[in-house]
Design goal:
The protein contains 14 helices and 19 strands. The model has no long low-confidence stretch (mean pLDDT 97). It is α/β, with parallel strands linked by helices. The strands form 4 sheets. The chain has a 7-stranded mixed beta sheet. A 6-stranded mixed beta sheet has the order 8-2-1-12-19-18. The chain has a single domain (3-169, 265-375), classed as 3-Layer(bba) Sandwich (FAD/NAD(P)-binding domain), CATH 3.50.50. Strand 14 and strand 15 (200-206) form a beta hairpin.
């Protein structure tokens, strides 16, 4: 069986490792010319860590990550409005939430796949699906036939946008900066925090290497040139209304990690399976980052696909099981994450006062229960 995984990101590499575990020798085709582990920080939820354990690639990620025991939600003065006790997830489900450098996560997954199965400089320019297989044409002039294709080619997936009309990414109406900065003992270990105000949202999490991963979001129109051209000092000015250490984290950011992106998701799809082509990760269910589940859901995809292919009687049945399990769950993640971002980005002072007051009285047990669907 000849299987192609299109995309060498987190979803694609995790899927390769998972399929190799059950002796399916899938090959990864990546458009970049070489391995390029980049990015700032990323959160990996307990649910995704469970999947990584079952695939057999969790050890290096745990060693490189910072376990998070608590999530704090703050107002603009950094008064705590509410918290989620992440340690309860460890007690109940057996794994920690992890904060990690995205590059370290990417590298750990890359190292888990035999390099002979990863092919760089292979950007897909066209594909044709037939009853007997899928023909793919690459920009480098090569053309190959595969029995099955797993499209893990990201939110702008050419496979999804070809197979599914009107599936272009939809803008979340806010823009975001990210970065990593040295921790100077002003960020508490094992605790992630997020502050909400009329002037924008700021969050951070400590990393195991002594850095702090941070993000900041403001409402904006798409492709706003003013925000796109903003440097660290400009971003620090936007968030100057917050207490320390916000200004320091922004202005002392490591240059290579300082990133800016408008945030998008895609409207939930009804299926991820199109004959011999399976959508996976952001290609199937790109979500806003408000639940920290973007990478996690791609990792779960890989595990569920592996499990289905290992236990079902046919590939068609395996794909059907994968589809049933993943479409429903990821739809809930997309919708809930978008709702959280909508409420967190409110600018009207009256609405903010109402939100903050009500949020303070939400039982912590209810906030914890709101996450348990991730383990279904």
């Amino acid at each position: 069986m000849k299987v192609a995984i299109i995309g060498g990101g987190i979803g694609g590499l995790t899927t390769a490792a998972a399929l190799h575990k059950i002796d399916i020798e899938a090959h990864v085709y990546e458009r970049a010319e070489s391995f390029q582990p980049i990015g700032a920080g990323i959160g990996i939820g307990s649910n995704a860590m469970l999947a990584l354990q079952k695939i057999g690639v969790a050890e290096n990620i745990i060693q490189a990550g910072m376990p998070l025991y608590e999530q704090r939600f703050l107002n603009e003065h950094f008064a705590v409005m509410n918290t989620i006790d992440f340690s309860l997830l460890k007690e109940k489900f057996g794994e920690d939430n992890i904060a990690i450098q995205r590059a370290e996560l990417h590298e750990a997954l890359f190292d888990a796949v035999d390099s002979a199965y990863v092919h760089f400089n292979h950007q897909v320019v066209a594909f044709t699906q037939m009853e007997t297989g899928v023909t793919i044409s690459f920009q480098n002039g090569q053309q190959q036939m595969f029995d099955y294709v797993i499209a893990a080619d990201g939110i702008h997936s050419m496979f999804r946008q070809t197979l599914v009309l009107n599936s272009a990414p939809r803008y979340a109406h806010y823009t975001c900066w990210r970065g990593t900065t040295k921790n100077k003992n002003d960020v508490t270990s094992h605790v992630s925090s997020e502050a909400w105000s009329a002037g924008g949202r700021f969050g951070w999490a400590p990393l195991a290497n002594g850095d702090v991963y941070w993000f900041s979001c403001v409402n904006a129109k798409a492709n706003d040139e003013y925000y796109a051209s903003m440097d660290q000092l400009g971003v620090a000015h936007l968030f100057a209304h917050y207490p320390d250490p916000v200004k320091r984290l922004i202005t002392e950011v490591e240059e290579a990690s300082f990133l800016h992106h408008d945030l998008y998701d895609i409207a939930p799809l009804n299926t991820f399976v199109y004959g011999r082509i399976v959508l996976l990760g952001d290609a199937a269910h790109a979500t806003t980052p408000n639940m920290g589940q973007g990478a996690g859901q791609a990792i779960e995809d890989a595990y569920e696909l592996m499990s289905a292919l290992e236990t079902e009687a046919s590939i068609e049945q395996a794909f059907a099981r994968y589809d049933t399990r993943r479409v429903t769950k990821t739809k809930k993640v997309i919708q809930r994450s978008r709702q959280i971002g909508w409420a967190a980005q409110w600018e009207h002072e009256g609405l903010i006062a109402f939100r903050n007051t009500v949020f303070t009285y939400v039982p912590k047990s209810l906030l914890f229960q709101s996450l348990t669907f991730l383990f279904d």
